[in-house]
Amino acid sequence: MPGEPVNLTDALASFTEIYSPRIVQRVNDYDVRVAKVEGEHVWHAHDHTDEFFLVVDGVFDIALRDADGFESTVRLETGDTFVVPKGVEHMPSSPGASILMFEPSGTSTTGDRHGEIPDHVDSTTGHKL
Fold this sequence. Notes:
Layout: H1 8-13, E1 22-27, E2 30-40, E3 44-45, E4 51-65, E5 71-77, E6 81-84, E7 89-104, E8 113-114, E9 127-128
């Protein structure tokens, strides 16, 4: 039996925590997650999976660090999408936004490798809506 539709606006209105994603749907072995973001996340990398981002509302920056330590930043605005390839170190930050992520179920928000996790970042595999 099919699941129920989920309205992203209602889903995002149902919680206030930042960097604490909620699972809104599942597709095969993937989670569709939404999160509110503000401030800096943590430098981290996912060794075995790409990470897809869609900005639902606001501005969302993703700093990227290559193998030589060179850093660059991608700025995403409402409606923009971006994929961080597996193994690439990255650090999201935002003045305030809502995002949607698509990644394999069980993927940690702080990746397989990360720095010290700030108190405002929830190191989780996602919470039920």
